[in-house]
Write a structure and sequence with these properties.
single chain, about 130 residues
Length: about 130
């Protein structure tokens, strides 16, 4: 249906939305090349944070960790108060056993969000965030 919608789309905004939704569909069936192709087309039409977040998630799920780290780093610079980016990037570093990098991510988040030190979503990072 989305491929048919591409044929019928009459504005760039509509094309961007369809490409985004195609990327989401391909992401969920683990066709990462098609997902990246469609999200990049959507980003070319109009840049948006949620599109870059999906791209970071695609990179993570396909195992392209360096690209995922780069994408999440870029997102965190734009929105240092976003806990989703913090959790995703912290988890990547922990899986890589790069605990000091994970700690740096959490530290930057707490500097931007001092009121969030007691956030239960960050409780699983106990030893990594010790003293932050």
């Amino acid at each position: 249906n989305l491929n048919k919608a591409l044929e019928l789309a009459d504005t760039n905004d509509m094309l961007g939305i369809i490409y985004y939704n195609l990327a989401v569909c391909y992401y969920h069936i683990n066709d990462f090349e098609a997902a990246k192709e469609n999200i990049r087309k959507s980003i070319q039409i109009k840049e948006a944070e949620d599109k870059n977040y999906l791209l970071a998630e695609i990179y993570t799920k396909e195992g392209n960790i360096d690209q995922a780290i780069e994408e999440y780093g870029s997102l965190m610079k734009k929105r240092p108060k976003n806990i989703e980016y913090t959790i995703a990037l912290t988890n990547i570093y922990i899986r890589k056993h790069e605990y000091m990098n994970a700690r740096k991510v959490l530290k930057a988040y707490f500097q931007a969000n001092p009121e969030d030190k007691g956030n239960p979503r960050l409780a699983p990072y106990g030893i990594v965030r010790l003293g932050l």
